[in-house]
């Protein structure tokens, strides 16, 4: 369709076509997929090995339409399957699920938009395109995004604009969880889509018994007022946003006090370092560039921070999964925390829906948040570039514990 039906000499038509392609597939009565490299009478597995599964544009070609039929090189039906919809064929779906890493439910009932953004990026991470910018343009429909198509801007800029829009609309910080080369567009974003091949960290699942046991322990060592103060400050943090290609990222930061290069390991790039930071246990990181080594007793002029991007969903009901929407209201970085709640008087309006006083319920929520903050998390290393500007210089670091 894109080869035969789009006049690529007409910029307006190209813009409209790329931003509308997912909708065209979704509203089609039937999508026919011609597998030029699958010979007649092929055995199961030929579809999985087809180049069709590696192309960037074919991602939406299968997940968007409701009815798809696969044809082999001689225009015979794949596997001789005469069913009216190959998306309902268990054998074909299993083959595609294994080949693409996309679960069968998503293959059949795919929903475009911001929900599951990081997983969708992982699904697209191994796909290739002939034109470098298409690695991003082919995903506009997957995320329900409409953006200008600017051929010649280069892959990093096109991908950067896409990822910037995803973060801005969804507030989904898992998009910042990647391994690879940083982008020239913004160092907190990857230079290539294949940096999302590795799955994102899944937050630990905590039982209510564990949470209550940890809260009981915290009550003995941490004043509730302090937990509430931290809770209120974090509650006031807004979603991440971009402005002029710069990421404004609400986060919890830890000043790095020691950087020492690991001896006895491969001295090639990336380099492994032992890192110490206030409030964290010692950890290892790998960096794509050489870092200045220093000790707490002999600090470097260069300021380094380990940062934990703030996830607002830690404030919510922990039994619920994050539900990212396309909310694009104006957001900032941080405001002054709210004043503590006045508990001098209490009437019915001062009670929570569960019957507890509001202050008591907030205290319980604050302690639950402290338990969550103590769980393992991912952080990345930033080096200060100027006033209020930082550059990411290392892969994601896994942190086992944070002192609160």
Low confidence ranges: 318-353
Number of extended strands: 11
Biggest sheet descriptor: 7 strands, antiparallel
> How many individual helices?
11
Residues in β-strands, percent: 5-15%
Order of helices and strands: HEHHEHHHHHHHEEEEEEHEEE
Give average pLDDT, whole number: 84
Which outline best applies? globular
What Rg is obtained from the alpha carbons, in whole angstroms?
25 Å
Terminal residue distance: 56 Å
Structural class by SSE content = alpha+beta
What percent of the residues sit in helical stretches (DSSP H or I)? 25-40%
3D structure, described in words:
- Helix 10 packs across helix 11 (about 360-375).
- This protein has helices spanning about 10-25, 45-50, 60-65, 90-100, 105-110, 115-125, 135, 155-170, 210-220, 225-235, 360-375; strands spanning about 30-35, 70, 240-245, 245-250, 250-260, 270-275, 285, 305-310, 375-385, 390, 395-400.
- Strands 5, 6, 7, 8, 9, 10 and 11 form a seven-stranded antiparallel beta sheet that branches. Strands 1-2 form a two-stranded parallel sheet.
- A hairpin with a 5-residue loop joins strand 6 (about 270-275) and strand 7.
- The chain is globular.
- About 30% of the residues lie in helices and about 15% in strands.
How is this fold's topology laid out?
Blueprint: H1 11-27, E1 31-34, H2 46-49, H3 58-63, E2 68-71, H4 90-100, H5 104-108, H6 117-124, H7 134-137, H8 155-170, H9 208-221, H10 224-236, E3 241-243, E4 246-248, E5 251-261, E6 271-277, E7 283-287, E8 304-309, H11 358-373, E9 377-386, E10 389-392, E11 397-399
Parallel strand pairs: 1-2
Antiparallel strand pairs: 3-4, 5-6, 5-8, 6-7, 8-9, 9-10, 9-11
Helix pairs in contact: 9-11, 10-11
